[in-house]
Amino acid sequence: MSNNILEVKDLKVSFHTYAGEVHAVRGVTFNLKKGEALAIVGESGCGKSVTSQAIMRLIATPPGEIKKGSSIIFDGKTDIAKLTDKQMEDIRGSEMGMIFQDPMTSLNPTMKIGRQIAEGLIKHQGLSKQAARERAIEMLRLVGIPNPEGRVDNYPHQFSGGMRQRVMIAIALACNPKLLIADEPTTALDVTIQAQILDLMRDLQEKTGASIILITHDLGVVADIAQRVVVMYAGKVVEQGTVDDIFYNPQHPYTWGLMRSVPRLDHDDNKELIPIEGTPPDLIAPPKGCAFAARCPYAMEVCLEQDPDVSKVNAGHSASCWLLHPNAPKVERPVEVGGHNHG
Amino acid sequence: MLRFILRRLIYGVITLWVLITLTFIMMHNLPGDPFANSQKLSKEALAVLKKTYGLDQPIWVQYGSYLKKIVSFDFGISFNYPTRTVNEVLTQTFPTSAELGMYAIIVAVLIGLTLGVIAALNHNKTWDYVAMLTAIVGVAAPALVIGPLLSYFIGVKLGWLPPALWKGPEYKILPTITLAFGTLATMARMMRTSMLDVVNQDYIKTARSKGLTKFAVVFKHTIRNAMLPIITILGVAVVNITTGAFVVEQIFAVPGMGKFFVQSITTNDYTMIMGMTIFYAALLIVAIMITDVLYGLIDPRIRLSKGGK
Amino acid sequence: MQTVTPDKFKPATHAGNKERVVRKSLSYWADAWRRLKKNKLATFGLIVLSLLAIFAIIGPFIQPYDYQSQDYAARNIAPGTAHWFGTDDLGRDQWVRVWWGVRISLFIGIISAALDFTIGVLYGGISAYFGGRVDDIMQRIIEILMGLPYMIIVILLMMVMGPGIFTIIVALAAVGWVGMARLVRGQMLSLKEQEYVLAARTLGASSWRIILRHLIPNALGIIIINVTFTVPGAIFAEAFLSFIGLGIKPPMASLGSLVNDGMQVMRNYPYRLLCPSIVFSLIMLSFNLLGDGLRDALDPRLRK
Fold first, then answer.
1. Domain segments of chain C: what residues?
2. For residue range B44-53, what is the model confidence (pLDDT) as tens digits?
3. Class of domain B93-266
4. A28 and B CB contact within 8 Å
5. Are B199 and B208 in contact (CB under 8 A)?
6. ABC transmembrane type-1 domain: which residues (chain C) (predicted)?
7. Which residue ranges make up each domain of chain B?
8. Taking CB atoms and an 8 Å cutoff, what residues of chain A touch C14?
9. Is this complex's ipTM strictly greater than 0.90?
10. Are A170 and A135 in contact (CB under 8 A)?
11. With a CB-CB cutoff of 8 Å, which residues 139-198 of chain B face chain C?
12. Among A136, A294, B220, C64, which residue's Cβ finds the most Cβ atoms within 10 Å?
């Protein structure tokens, strides 16, 4: 048995819309080690959320579809892409839990939060209603809800956004899952609350030893929690590596662009933030070559014609870019991007 | 919540008062003077009527005594048959109408909601099209079209069910279907839309992410939330079924309040019309009020709010 | 390792600009029209409606009868070459009477919808524009009116005003505008607060541009949808009133009274029930299909 809790291989997800087939995820491959926190970053529409929902098998079919040939090996044995819906129900919630972006809409407004936590426990651990309630109170305490005995019978609208997200974490972790997927868990929250939620997640990860996949477009959050990073663009992984690799030795021009477009506290100079120009391609008709070529200042003719292979930079660090081809011209990487680590 | 109920009650009372005043004003503005050019009435009857309505007194005194009478449920006597009080007619005809209305609302709600749920769960499949077709037929063929057609084809042509009258249980099927159909179609359509809306909510994704069975997700999470907007149109449904009964009772010769109301209209029995109008209005206003309060009770967001909204 | 000839590593010349949007962008109305045309049911509704309108205009004139002339020699004739929809017990031609009924239906439907729209937009607009006290009072009035049962009030008004096309229109307009007023006010208020309006303002868009490009397309869509459903509502109300004997004055024909008359004699002359029933259903059907189609086409929230 391998050391990986999750091995995603060549994952392809499409949505059939009236305008045509949207190739939202176009062959994503990455691994997640046990106890590791992995961040998937990229701009809106790059397929990061779809990837996470595919792992949970939450893609609505139709219109969505996980394409043949995709494999999602969970815990070294089960291929999630091939499970029946029934088999999947047993894994969801017990082996893997999920937190969503907007805590204001992700809780059932007409059900007491205690019951919402207890539901999974009753289903997966066969607890009695009373026992599940006790455990729900315990979970509420664990995620830092004050007066959990009183709050367990409250409805979601009686909680603030940050508190609701804590409840969501309690639901996701109630059955001690091996994998927690958090889809932009702090995006909808105030900055101060964001930090609290991130602290809580890190804390709980240490306590439970669960692996985490964190979907975000906030690189600050990435540095805070993750050990490894997957950078996605237009439904593909363009670069992946450790946090240090990505922050200090990025290889893909898209990653450079990402790094330059967010403020960095570790750079003392007041560098101007440079946005990435242009918009991502239409995934109904993805471009033939590298999807980023149209926006890439370093684009070469080959980039427009052929998609680059994955090039290894070191053991855990790889990127898909023609610039890494031995025949490619050496380009000067923009100095702001991990300048001191250059070369 | 208490404030919410109180607020609803106050609005109900005001609405009712507006209506009563409206009927009073209308009584005084009927085309021509019903008391003057009615040859049907004997002098004695006319005298009784004038006294009953106090027509010789100033208008605000008339209004005052009118209000007093209405509040004490005294709707006066029939204009055409001075020996009959409006109350008598109401007690005679209301039970029949209530029975028919009950059947219709039960059929409409139960079948309509079930159809809506089945349609949403089979989105873009056969059952969905069946529900959509029902909804379309429901609006295209209201009671005044579907009633005579059912009576003709099933009652007269095929002879499966009695085409009219209100006697045994088999007599009650066609009127019930006719009266229920439009509301059933609306219910099915609304429930379908509401279900499809709820299915796309994040909290359904949360429910699924817990590994709940499809059955549990549908019954514990989806239907419950999808029902909420339906409750708000329940009041409208009661109103539609009540007014629909005017036509349906006419078509199937059901001896109910609606048939009598329409008869009073055709025979210009003004006092009867006024009395029945107020009774109807009170009934409907109360029905709307109850559904509003019911909604407040069922939705925890309203039930637990301290404010009025 | 992928093999690539070295010359391919020349810098590429970016043909298009980076902001190029791949899918063709359509204006709101063009897109709505395209979606409406794609909707088969709505197209069907539109075609049937056009046919009905044409027949309502020319129908009464392609037969040599009028709606009230009685011909005792030609009573209760079944549909045939002389009388396409047959005749009634007074020998009046059903074809002509049915199309007169459709005329009245369409006329009342359209005028009522126009009145609802005008009053509703004025009331709702004033209420939303002034806000504060004025809005408060106007909304309380609406809340009370909303509680009144529509049909009952219309019946009361008809009792007072007597039967006739004009009185029906007045009665329907007196009660019907409330929903539209609420809708307009709600739209105005919510749109005023929308972030994209703020965004447009921040970007320096003029008030006219905001009204033309943002407020009207977004509010008008929903208002148009409402109007399309008001028309069959009014048509139904007229038929309902005429059916119970409160609507159109005889000898003028109305679909409601034709159905009622037909019902009385359906055992012997079923065509007298079927003809007006079918035509009436077609009117209701086509308006509702068109309304559904418009809703799908115009509601921006449903756009994908």
1. 56-66+77-302
2. 666 666 666 6
3. mainly alpha
4. no
5. no
6. 102-291
7. 1-64+281-309, 93-266
8. 294, 299
9. no
10. no
11. 139-142, 144-145, 148-149, 151-152, 156
12. A136
